[in-house]
Specification:
Blueprint lengths: L3 H32 L7 H12 L7 E2 L2 E2 L9 H8 L4 H13 L18 H15 L13
Antiparallel strand pairs: 1-2
């Protein structure tokens, strides 16, 4: 049997130990956040995020692993299209915009993205948002370009 003083010592010792661990983890997280550079936000990126939210893209797509798994990951869509277009940013931008405009394709048996009547400005802002998202240090998430 344990005495009251032994139980009290275990309780206080454990509390102090886990408090020190907690403070260490908070300090580590803080130093990681401070030392991680995030790309600067432009107005077009903010508007692109608004287009993303207004059209509820996250109901089907994931963005950096968050969202629905019905459609492809879009946190690295810029990198995918850039790689498929010989690292030409203009060609990648046009390819993404063309893809969005051509939906739904009507291919039988495939999941179809709804048609959104987005203006050219909204499409460019959305692509700017995808480009900005691709520059976030995600520690190699998703693990491959296919998303």
């Amino acid at each position: 049997m344990q005495t009251k003083s032994a139980a009290r010592n275990i309780f206080f010792g454990g509390t102090i130990f886990f408090f020190v661990v907690f403070v260490g983890l908070v300090a580590h997280s803080y130093s990681y956040i401070v030392n991680t550079s995030t790309p600067p936000l432009k107005d077009s990126v903010v508007r692109g995020k608004l287009v993303w939210e207004e059209n509820a893209c996250i109901n089907c797509h994931t963005l950096l692993g968050e969202g629905a798994y019905y459609a492809p990951e879009l946190g690295n869509v810029w990198k995918r299209y850039l790689a498929n277009n010989d690292n030409d940013p203009k060609a990648a931008r046009e390819a993404i915009i063309t893809w969005i405009k051509s939906m739904p394709t009507g291919v039988e048996g495939r999941r179809q993205m709804p048609h959104f009547d987005l203006t050219d400005q909204q499409l460019n802002d959305l692509v700017d948002f995808f480009e900005w998202t691709s520059k976030i240090n995600t520690q190699n998430w998703p693990p491959n370009l296919a998303g």
